[in-house]
Write a structure and sequence with these properties.
Layout (H helix, E strand, L loop, with lengths): L11 H24 L19 E6 L5 E3 L2 E3 L1 H14 L8 E6 L5 H13 L5 E3 L8
Parallel strand pairs: 1-4, 4-5
Antiparallel strand pairs: 1-2, 2-3
């Protein structure tokens, strides 16, 4: 009796393991890239909750200059862009949350005046970014 020859088999278990690891790698990479968009500043320490959804980050640097999502802008232009972003969200979608990321060395007056101007421009959701650990 002649021996029957078996066909070639493709082992799917090893392939699925590799694809799962690649998927996990890309998920963590994308998550890491989206969490840190902005300028590195020395944040004040406090406990706070994390904002979910779309965000717009306004950074106050130590010299009280302003940046919108990492782009240096003058105060009037920054206010106009933020107001346009908030007004651009139609009724079906929620406007993006505005996060103010102020350096510890920035003056309090710059933050308070920015907050007042944002409120006057129609921005209702404003959060301050903190480092997450309370100061000693």
């Amino acid at each position: 009796m002649p021996r029957r020859r078996r066909g070639v088999r493709l082992e799917m278990t090893a392939l699925m393991d590799v694809m799962f690891l690649v998927l996990v790698f890309f998920i963590y990479s994308v998550f890491d890239m989206t969490m840190h968009r902005g300028v590195k500043v020395d944040l004040p320490g406090a406990k706070g909750a994390e904002e979910k959804g779309d965000r717009v980050v306004v950074t106050i640097l130590p010299d009280d200059s302003l940046q919108l999502d990492g782009e240096p802008l003058a105060r009037p232009e920054l206010l106009a862009r933020v107001a346009a972003l908030v007004a651009g969200a139609d009724g079906a979608e929620e406007p993006p949350a505005l996060i103010v990321s102020g350096d510890r060395a920035a003056s309090l007056g710059a933050g308070v005046s920015l907050l007042a101007e944002l409120k006057a421009a129609g921005v209702e959701r404003v959060s301050f970014q903190v480092s997450g650990a309370p100061e000693p």
